[in-house]
Amino acid sequence: MTELEHEALRGLLGAWALRACLSDEAGELERHFDVCPDCAEEGARLRHAAARLSTDDPLDRPDGLRQQVLDFCLARRAPELPLAPWVGPYAAETAKLDALLRDLGRSEWQESVELPWHGGVLRRNPAAVLCHLAAVDGLLAVALGLPDPVEPAGSAAPADPHGPVDPFPRVPAQARSSADPWDHLLERSDLLAEARSDLSPDAVRTLWRQQSLAVIRTVQPGSSALVRYGPGAELPVRDAFVDRAFECWIHGEDVARAVDYPYAGPAPQHLRQMVDLAARMLPTVLAGLRTAAYAGAGGRPQPAARLLKLVIEGPAAGEWLIPLDAERRPEPDPNPDPNPDPELVAELVMDGIEFCQLAAAHRDPERLPVGEYGDRAAIREVLTAVPLLSRP
Amino acid sequence: MTAPDWDQQMRSRLARGEESALGELYDQLSPLVHGLAGRILADESAAAQLTREVFGHLWAHPEEFDPTERSLRSWIGELTHQRAVQRLRRGALDAEEISERVATAQVQYVVAALPPTLRQTIETAWSDGRTYQETARQLGISEQVAKQRLRLGLQLLASELEFGS
What we know:
Helix content of chain A: 40-55%
CATH architecture of the largest domain in chain B: Orthogonal Bundle
Radius of gyration of chain B: 17 Å
Mean pLDDT of chain A: 87
Low-confidence stretches of chain B: none
Structural class of chain A: alpha+beta
Structural class of chain B: mainly alpha
Distance between the termini of chain B: 34 Å
Strand content of chain A: 5-15%
CATH superfamily of the largest domain in chain B: RNA polymerase sigma factor, region 2, helix turn helix motif
Number of domains of chain A: 3
CATH topology of the largest domain in chain B: Rna Polymerase Sigma Factor, Chain: A
Order of helices and strands of chain A: HHHHHHEEHHHEEHHEEEHEH
CATH architecture of the largest domain in chain A: Up-down Bundle
Largest sheet of chain A: 4 strands, mixed
CATH class of the largest domain in chain B: Mainly Alpha
Shape of chain B: globular
Number of strands of chain B: 0
Number of strands of chain A: 8
Largest sheet of chain B: none
Strand content of chain B: under 5%
Distance between the termini of chain A: 63 Å
CATH class of the largest domain in chain A: Mainly Alpha
Radius of gyration of chain A: 27 Å
CATH topology of the largest domain in chain A: Four Helix Bundle (Hemerythrin (Met), subunit A)
Mean pLDDT of chain B: 88
Helix content of chain B: over 70%
Number of helices of chain B: 8
Strand order of the largest sheet of chain A: 6-5-7-8
Oligomer: heterodimer
């Protein structure tokens, strides 16, 4: 046997000890042990070490543990640089998705993930789902002065080099007034997925994770930044963080469903913030629905301002008053009606997780167990409007 | 960022009292801390309590960790191991049971303290029952490198275990 052949056999010792080589390789090495006491000795030693590796899975970390540990630590020592409470949901949801992704095997990264929204169902593999999350999170990054993952510094060349980078440079001007601002988000997502298509799933995960950690680290509790989701669609940074947490949870669950893993819902105090954001955005969607329904029908008689009380049950319990007749007037009405007293016309009772799932268009409003009191038409109106909050 | 850089930066951020660093610390090291605690204590609520205690200790006293001496993984692994054993000794278990659990957990802790690339390669081959060829493909490394890492990792593991027992 040449020295080179001997080296090749010795190189197999670790794999052999872990029973991680092919059987003909193992057979050859074992025959070699008969004539080579050095290799036989190292083989025995490594196999002995390998035998002590445990096979049992460690305990799964219980769902609420992260929050419990953080709360315990923060009670023990108050942070000098605290996170804003509205960053909490995003920090927790991105960490949860990261933990799921670290467990995915090679074949699971090839699975097709279904991403339902009110306009249909998108299908992407998990890496492309991550690029979608990263592309929209990138708008948050840009608003905080961090680089845009889709159009890194240099390629976008903003007019004012110190100003914020335009996140939609490739969108033609006429398309910017298009009724569907989500096209831009999908375009960004696909650009990023294409740019990262040669990377390993682990590299895609790492880039997404680094960006999410960077925005968490960068945002100041007093930040008044505005996040541009598209032409005419802006959210204050505090709402944008809750929105991104919401999408991360929903798409994390979409991925988990595709690979058949369990996925926990958000912590109660985080869920509450998501419900609150959705409840605050509802009046705009309702107004849009009404405009569409009555366009061309000569308008409808303006009723008194109606209110619906949304009662959320479960861990995120709370109550929200939803104005059903808020108008989206482009200009202040020169002859406003004397403001009628808002009238509480209905009460809708549902679970917080179910409400959010409905807002993500992951539930059928017709089949949702809800408690209804009062004006049934008003309740139908709201249940129809909630899924319209969803985006691709 | 290399592991020692991450450790160094984490320590300064914890010392500055950055709440965002605490979350990152938990996300990176809770599988190790909670896994070790669970293996030694074999009780879910005791493991959760110990996990709180260990992170609480590092958050309150980040200066106790010296990145020039060792890695944060190995430091926090040892802290968890020590505290778990102390807790076990306060209980009603007999000495044999204690030493058995400690020995099992010791392996996990030694593996956790291995250089990340070696640990990842061993875990990929072992826990998922892959051949070194499959391991190499999974990790995007050459088969030669996979074999080398498995051998080197087990050599380190063997020395640590022989030294420790």
